[in-house]
Structure formats: structure tokens, C-alpha cells
Specification:
The complex is a heterodimer of chains A (394) and B (181). With 394 residues, chain A is α+β, with helices and mostly antiparallel strands. Chain A is 46% helix and 13% strand. The model of chain A has no long low-confidence stretch (mean pLDDT 87). In chain B, a hairpin with a 2-residue loop joins strand 1 and strand 2. The longest helix of chain B is centred in the N-terminal third of the chain and has 13 residues. The N terminus of chain B is likely disordered. The chains are: A alpha+beta (394), B alpha/beta (181).
């Protein structure tokens, strides 16, 4: 084992106090971080530690691999919705939507305006409930449990609204190619949604006091896990993590889809690129999402059908999609989520490939950011990257 | 309020100009505009690395994904490098085809460091060898599943499940062929 000499200043300081410091032995060891650890959520990192500093990190995913892409090749187009949404647990509407949008493009369907409005509302609701879940995780990693428990309670309001709209709480199986599965329940539901938006808007200042404007949070996150612009682009960092570096890229603005061209919102951008910047970008985005939902509700749902009027929709199991391929992507809370669907003209997709943001955030980016970090900062970096293991494994 | 259609927000002129510029610098490429914000570029497999270096300088600075499609009838793998340009806001599919029985591609790790992960995944599921990537090996799958390449079209899913789980997998009947798993 290598011996490490005690620095001279320390030696002198010890001498002043009548003490003697012995040379210590440098001791590196391997630490298995996860998959049981709460911060890693179903994947593990093998850390090579030097004391409490990380020397090297190797990501070890695969605990959630269920072969969804292979299974999707064995099933008819519409059945795949119930399968692919499991790729992103906190916001399951994102995989539903990207897959449906890609199939819409393949078939050539122009989705009715009412369906587009409903899909946009559902996506924004999913974003807000995912933000609440993120606050829960982030607060817990910093030891501020109160904020997390509030956030989960507020998320419950969205769960109830989702249950009334779709029948499911977590997995909704709601967006289908050509529209949505059923219409909105009525004006009462819209009123409830408006109330929830108002409620959460009023509660955000509580989160500011306890979490985002808190000295403990600044101390723990400032200067931890810093990225620069070149690193972010080379490692395909997307979403809030990219905007925390100072690059303006939001799929909703830059490759607009559904109803987003009609609503106004800002894309919050910070320059620092550290964990604090990443957390604050997310805080500002919650505000923008509430604003988007307000605008959508003010406009009200357009009249018309909620799915395309097509005779082929009556024979779903043998529904054939023309040859070709399509790529659709949306802005999720974690980043740029995309689906690439290839059709060979039969009733099953030839290939479905899902691009999750954590494929870059959770592997190469994480391995680089962890080097030199303290062990206590590992969960902070993980949470501010908002890593979601199911989309690495799929 | 007038409904702005997504496809009309940006005209197709930008995409056509991008393709023209690329073909001028790399005459070996075939390109066409798919729709607004989507362009297709076909590149021969032996010049793919050189081309990605060029396209990075042209502004396509983000490698979003490497998608592999197994065209078993044509005995070819298609590799699609999905590129996004943050400045031009255009998505490019860079397509290349390689023979199935000698599936080799150069690694893009030194141009786009994130390619390392995508290549590890493609190697594990399809058995494509990316020359120059030192981390090819078991990644997502279990070590015993490595080198089975389950996403290839000729992988026998039911056979594998029966071989591994044996008697526990009692629903499997060899005489039936119309399984929907």
C-alpha cells in the first residue's frame, strides 16, 4: 500500500497543539452504489473510491431490461402502446406520444385539433407531475424531506385527474395513433384542472422558501458536477441539463409539435452548468408549464372529433401501416425523448427504437461528472441530472 | 386565433440549401429532404467517419442516437446516425449499410464521445463490431446473454427462453407456431 505524507502546514498546526500526525496509508476501495440505494433508482454505479473522493465511476445498468423494443416487433401497432409507456415511469405519456406521433406520420394522418389539444394538455400535466416527483427526489437527497412530501401530495392531485380522464393513475394508455382513446369527461374536469393549476401556482412560493431559496441547498449544489458547453454538446446532453449550460434548445420551440406553436412561453437558460443551475432551470420550467396549461385552459378545447375518422380503425389487430420510417420527439422533463419507427408494410412494426435522454445523461455524462466528487455529492449529481434508468435499459 | 401548422412554420428552402452545401463538399453523398426539419443522407460505409467529421463542422453538433435496423432479406444492417443541429434546428438521418455477416463500422468515439454508449448497445444487441471502441462487452444484458445478439431478426426468442427456463416455462408448445408473445 502507498504511503501518503502529511502536508507540512498540517504538521505544524498539529505541533502547535502538541500533537503528532502519522503518515496515512492511501487506501482505494470499490464501492457498489445501488441498485438498492434510493438515489440511483434501479441501476448501480461501481465507484472506485479514494477516501471519500470518487476516483473512477463505472455505470452498471441492465436491472430493468425487459426487451421492449424486441417485443414491440412481435405485436400489432396499437398493442404496443401498453408496452412502450413503461419505458418512462414518472411521465408515461411521453413514450405514448412519441410512438403515436411517429405512427401518425407513417400513416399520413392529420390528427384532429381537439385530439392535439388534449394530447398537449396531457403532456403538460405529465410534465408537472414529473416535476413534483423530481422535487421529492431532490429534496430527499439533500435531507429536506418536507419539500418532497408536499410535492408528492400535490402530485396526487394530477394522479386523480389522470384517473378520471384515462382510468389509470401511473400508466394511462391514453394516447393512441390517430388521436386519443376517449374524450375529456366534461367541464367539471376542466374546472378541477384549472383549480389544481391555481393551487400549485400558489404553493410554489413555499417550495422557494424551503428548497430553492435555501442556504443548505446552495452550499450542497453550487460548483458540484460542472459541465461546459463543449462537453454538453459532445455528450448529447439535452433538456434542462443543456439549458443550464447556456444553450438554447427546447424541442417544443425548435421542432414544434401538437399545440405548442400556439402557446407562449419562455425557455429559461442559465450559464453556470453546475448542479444549482440545473435545479434552478427546473424550478423556472415549472412556472412556464403552469403558464402553458393556463393558456390552454383559457382557450378551451377545440370542437370536433377526438380521433381521426378512418374506417381502418375498426379492424385494429390487422391494421396495416405503409412502408417507411419516421422519427418523432418531444421535450420531456428529462430531455429530448424520441422514437424511431420502421414499417415494412405489415401489421407489426419492423423496428422500434426509443431514444431516452438518460442514455447519455446516465452513462457517459455521469461517469465523467462523478470523477473527483465527494461520496455525499453522488446523489446530488444523480438527481440534478434527473437520470431515469428504465430508458437506458428499455 | 389562426392555427399555425407545424409544417408551415419553416419553409423547405433551408433544408434544400443545407443538402446542397453538404453535397458540394462531399459528392459521394445522396441527399433528399424528407419534410420540414428532416433530411435524409445516404453515405457509403467506408466514408462514414470522414462524413460525420464533416457534418459536425457543418453545424450538426449533436449525435442523438445510432439506430440499427436488421434487413434480413437483403442480408444487410442499416445504421442510422440521428443527428441534430442546435443552430439550424434540423434533424438529419445519416444512413449507411453494411453486410450482415461481416458487420464492422468505425467507432465515432473520438468525434462524439457519447457514441461510446450507443455503440456498446448496438454491439450487444446486434453484434456489430465498432473498431476503436475499447468498451465493447456485456453492458445491459447479463454476461450469459452476451454474444447471443437478441435484436437480430433470426434470434429464436422462444427457443432461448425454453433453453434457459426449461420446465418453468410450461406454456410453450413446440407444435404451435402462431405465438403472440
Amino acid at each position: 500500500m502507498e504511503k501518503v505524507e502529511v502536508p507540512r502546514e498540517l504538521k505544524e498546526e498539529a505541533k502547535a497543539h502538541d500533537m503528532y500526525l502519522y503518515p496515512i496509508e492511501k487506501d482505494t476501495y470499490e464501492l457498489f452504489f445501488g441498485p438498492q440505494h434510493m438515489a440511483t433508482e434501479n441501476f448501480s454505479i461501481i465507484l472506485k473510491m479514494d477516501g471519500s473522493r470518487v476516483e473512477k465511476a463505472i455505470v452498471n445498468p441492465g436491472f430493468l431490461h425487459r426487451g421492449f423494443e424486441k417485443l414491440a416487433e412481435q405485436r400489432p401497432y396499437f398493442t404496443n402502446i401498453a408496452l412502450l409507456l413503461r419505458i418512462c415511469v414518472p411521465e408515461s405519456d411521453v413514450p405514448e406520444n412519441i410512438y403515436s406521433m411517429a405512427v401518425d406520420e407513417l400513416v399520413g394522418w392529420e390528427v384532429p385539433e381537439r385530439a392535439q389539444w388534449i394530447r398537449t394538455v396531457v403532456l403538460e400535466m405529465a410534465r408537472l407531475s414529473a416535476w413534483m416527483f423530481w422535487i421529492f427526489g431532490f429534496g430527499n437527497e439533500l435531507g429536506l424531506y418536507t419539500a418532497g412530501q408536499w410535492a408528492v401530495a400535490y402530485r396526487e392531485r394530477f394522479m386523480r385527474l389522470f384517473e378520471e380522464l384515462t382510468g389509470g393513475r401511473v400508466y394511462h394508455i391514453y394516447t393512441i395513433p390517430g388521436g386519443v382513446r376517449r374524450d375529456i369527461p366534461g367541464d367539471k374536469w376542466l374546472r378541477q384542472l384549472r383549480d389544481t393549476v391555481e393551487y400549485i401556482k400558489a404553493k410554489m412560493k413555499d417550495f422557494d422558501e424551503i428548497l430553492f431559496d435555501n442556504y443548505i441547498v446552495f452550499e450542497r449544489t453550487e460548483g458540484v458536477g460542472v459541465m461546459d458547453k463543449k462537453f454538453a454538446l459532445d455528450h448529447a446532453v439535452t433538456g434542462p441539463n443543456l439549458r443550464a449550460v447556456g444553450i438554447d434548445y427546447d424541442v417544443r420551440k425548435d421542432d414544434p409539435y401538437l399545440f405548442y406553436p400556439e402557446v407562449e412561453f419562455e425557455v429559461p437558460i442559465l450559464k453556470e452548468g453546475d448542479s444549482l443551475a440545473r435545479a434552478l432551470v427546473r424550478r423556472y420550467e415549472i412556472e412556464q408549464d403552469l403558464y402553458i396549461l393556463e393558456q390552454l385552459l383559457e382557450r378551451g378545447p377545440p370542437s370536433g372529433p377526438y380521433k381521426v375518422q378512418d374506417a381502418r380503425l375498426k379492424a385494429l389487430p390487422r391494421f396495416k401501416v405503409p412502408k417507411g420510417d419516421a422519427y418523432a420527439h418531444v421535450e420531456s422533463t428529462k430531455g429530448d425523448f424520441g422514437a424511431y419507427v420502421v414499417s415494412d408494410g405489415s401489421h407489426k412494426p419492423y423496428r422500434v427504437h426509443i431514444r431516452g435522454p438518460s442514455q447519455s445523461h446516465g452513462v457517459t455524462v455521469l461517469e465523467n461528472l462523478l470523477v473527483g466528487a465527494r461520496l455525499a455529492d453522488v446523489p446530488v449529481i444523480l438527481k440534478t441530472l434527473d437520470n431515469c434508468p428504465p430508458d437506458i435499459d428499455r | 386565433m389562426e392555427r399555425k401548422r407545424c409544417k408551415e412554420v419553416v419553409g423547405m428552402a433551408l433544408e434544400e440549401k443545407i443538402i446542397e452545401e453538404i453535397i458540394q463538399k462531399a459528392p459521394y453523398v445522396e441527399g433528399n429532404v424528407r419534410r420540414a426539419k428532416r433530411i435524409d443522407l445516404k453515405v457509403p460505409a467506408d466514408r462514414i467517419k470522414e462524413f460525420l467529421e464533416l457534418i459536425k463542422k457543418e453545424g450538426f453538433n449533436m449525435l442523438i442516437q445510432i439506430s440499427i435496423v436488421d434487413w434480413i432479406k437483403e442480408k444487410e444492417f442499416e445504421a442510422i446516425y440521428q443527428m441534430w443541429s442546435v443552430d439550424k434546428k434540423v434533424h438529419a438521418f445519416v444512413r449507411t449499410r453494411i453486410p450482415r455477416d461481416d458487420a464492422k463500422l468505425p467507432s465515432m468515439r473520438d468525434i462524439f464521445p457519447v457514441a461510446e454508449t450507443y455503440e456498446r448497445e448496438a454491439h450487444e444487441f446486434f453484434g456489430i463490431i465498432f473498431e476503436g471502441n475499447p468498451r465493447l462487452g456485456p453492458f445491459i444484458l447479463e454476461p450469459r446473454e452476451y454474444e447471443k445478439h437478441p435484436f437480430r431478426k433470426d434470434f429464436n426468442m422462444l427457443g432461448y427462453v425454453k433453453a434457459v427456463y426449461g420446465e418453468d416455462f410450461d406454456r410453450y408448445d413446440e407444435n404451435k407456431t402462431n405465438y403472440v408473445i
